[in-house]
Structure formats: C-alpha cells, structure tokens
Amino acid sequence: MKPFHIFSHCSLASSSSNPRLNSSYPNDTLQMSVENVVYIGSKPIMNYCLAVLTSLKDGSSVALKARGRAISTAVDVAEVTKNRFMENLIVENVEIGTEELESEGRMRNVSTITIVLKKQ
Amino acid sequence: MKPFHIFSHCSLASSSSNPRLNSSYPNDTLQMSVENVVYIGSKPIMNYCLAVLTSLKDGSSVALKARGRAISTAVDVAEVTKNRFMENLIVENVEIGTEELESEGRMRNVSTITIVLKKQ
Fold it and tell me: Cβ separation of B94 and A94 shorter than 8 Å?
C-alpha cells in the first residue's frame, strides 16, 4: 500500500511495518487480523475520518492508535466515521495501555488507546 | 453507600440511581455486575484514583464514565490506578459511544467512554 501524501501527520501504515506499536497487541491473532493502522494526532477529526475510510477501501478492518490528549480525538474519529460515513462499521475491540516515553531527559508514562473498527 | 463529600465534582453513585447513564450499557448482565460509577471530569487525576480505590473497598468492580475531553483523563485514571495503586486490578471492558447534548440551544454529539475495572 502506498503511504498517504495528503496529510503530513496522518500516517497510515500496514501493521507489519511498525514493530513497536504491534508489541502492544496482547496476542498474534488480533495483530494478524488488523490490516491497517491510523495514528491519531492533533489534526482536525475529518482528516483522520478520511484516512479511515480510505484504509477501509482496501481492507476490512483498521486500528486507530492514539496517545495522551489525542485519545479523545481517536474516540471522536471512531464515532463520527461509524455514525456519519459508514453505517456497517462496528467497534470490534478497544484496548487501553501505558507507554514509556522519554521527554526532557526523563521517562514519562503516557496512556494509549487502540480502537479496532471492522466492516460488517 | 454514602455519597462522596471530599470531591465536589467527583460523583460516585450506585449504578441504579442514574437511569440515563445505565441506558448506555448494552445488556443487563454488565449493568448488574458493576456496582459503582465514578464520573470523570476536569479535576486532577489523583482525585479520581482515590474515588476508584474507595469504591473498590466496598465492591469488586467500578465503572469510569467520561465525555469529550475528559475521555483521555479516564484512561489515565484507569492506567494509574492499575499500575501504581492496585496491581490485582484488570480492565474488564472498554466501551465507546455517542451522546446527544444540548449546548447553546442546539444539539451536539459528544463522544463517551465507559471503562470497567475489576478486582481479580
């Protein structure tokens, strides 16, 4: 799959290309079944909704991943996509977790969320 | 159970006392099994962690509920309580949804999250 060029901060990658984020999956079954990942940041919600819709053209499921303050944006993206753009979409799984990040020379814990959306 | 007096905005209620929020549960089984609800707002995270810990003294599970920007705080509260204060705690269920709220005379959709924590 070609990378996204329209949104500079809206990365869309096959799940096999990012081993760090894949390690947060509890088992290999889930990892194998999710084809694409959309990383949520601070861009407008609609940018990410479009990324999710484009990603679902090729595959049947997509994982939204966010950290820190972007967690609420990830929930907005999932709900807006499901309710407004794609009625046959279901929330297959939601997982929360913690990641250690280095910030200003020391380690900080940051919360994460992974929302798996699937076409019915 | 007596209501919380220490946190003015940190309400803790038995799940039977709030029919509106209970209606977001998909089935009665989950509703019956969760004894207490902690509503997450804009107070410091530690206030809500203390509310969760106090609530878990009496019961075996607690639901964290949040809307909008408070969603990321709810994930922080769940993760901090689990990792720092109570190691035998598990995230039993995470649900996301949408609620309609009236704001400035018109209806707005707002995202919600419900995180159910359970003692092992």
Answer: yes
Q: Give rounded-to-5 percent helix, strand, coil for chain B.
A: 35, 35, 30
Q: How far is CA B74 from CA A15, A106, B45, B48, in A?
A: 27, 24, 8, 9
For the full predicted model, state whether its pTM sits above 0.95.
no
pLDDT tens-digit map of B50-69: 999 999 998 999 999 999 99
Query: What three-state secondary structure class fits B114?
Result: strand
CA distance B70 to chain A (A): 7
pLDDT tens for the 120 residues of chain B, in order:
434 333 334 444 433 333 334 444 444 444 445 679 999 999 999 999 999 999 999 899 999 999 999 999 999 999 999 999 999 999 999 999 999 999 889 999 999 999 999 998
Q: How many CA atoms lie within 13 A of A112 on its CB side?
A: 19
Could you give the ipTM of this predicted complex?
A: 0.74
Q: Residue ranges of the domains in chain B?
A: 12-119
Parallel, antiparallel or unpaired: strands B12-14 and A36-39: unpaired
A96 touches chain B (CB under 8 A): yes
Whether residue B68 and residue A68 make contact (CB cut-off 8 A), yes or no, is no
CA of B114: which chain A residue's CA is closest? A94
CATH tag, A12-119: 3.30.110.20
A96 and B98 within 8 Å at the Cβ level: the answer is no
